[in-house]
Amino acid sequence: MSDDTPRPGFWKRLTQGLTRTASNLSTGITDLFTKRKLDATTIEDLEDVLIRADLGVETSARIAEVVGKGRYDKEIEPEEVRGLVAAEIEKVLAPVAMPLVFESYAKPFVLLMVGVNGSGKTTTIGKLASVLRAQRKKVVLAAGDTFRAAATEQLKVWAERTGAALVSRAPGADAAGVAFDALAQAKADDADVLIIDTAGRLQNRAELMAELEKIVRVVRKQDPTAPHAVVLTLDATVGQNALSQVEAFQRVAGVTGLVMTKLDGTARGGILVALAAKFGLPVHLIGVGEGIDDLQPFAARDFARAVVGLDD
Hints:
The protein has helices spanning 10-17, 19-33, 40-52, 57-68, 78-93, 121-134, 149-162, 175-188, 206-222, 241-253, 271-279, 300-307; strands spanning 109-114, 139-144, 165-167, 193-198, 229-235, 257-261, 283-287, 295-297. The protein is of the alpha/beta class. Strands 3-2-4-1-5-6-7-8 form an 8-stranded mixed beta sheet, with helices on both faces.
């Protein structure tokens, strides 16, 4: 699609992106409730359908209980069940749907981006830089993923495209040193926002996690209040593994919020519900594609309805 072609609205892209997740849920619900009276077995089967959609055991049990309440031995249309499920999902998601706010009290506002390789972290940084530059904010990007030359190159492209400044060093350089230098430059340039990229750490690699802790320590030497936000980028296609990633990064870096990417490539979109129920961390943004407009603020109602295949 060329740049001058009008893009479909984000709701349409969200529903398209969540088609695989919605199809599994919707089909499961339709198969269960078509011309069948609701009983204990039906509720158990519904719970299984919700668990298979990665909504989490506790949330699935609670939603199934709500659907069954006062409806035993009655026929209930699949559409009504989907509406009930969507309403309960929205209740879980509404408290965590929070925009990413770059508070002006902190200048520069230091955002530390963390996440495993392939989660879409560097692309997310680029898209954020683009939005900030459109708001006429002065942005500095720090290429803290010094393990992969490709990551620095990718960030360089985004810096050039958005007009953000870039601080980078040779491959293999000390990532904490890059972060330190970038914050010094951001202060000198009177920048509004500093976004620090980090290597895609696997949560079981202790030495890489130690390096992430070092970045946080070094940044705090210059600004005891920084980083002002630590955002974890999660790839929706990893499903249940996202839970252990949040636990690991929360422990090391004190994650303050989440970005969920690649919802368009998975049948596991329900994992966002399980994450919200378990951790209660703000979900700032969701991504349903590679385009600059495919990363948008998270809206609980839109997601809840899309994930069960309901129209807006």
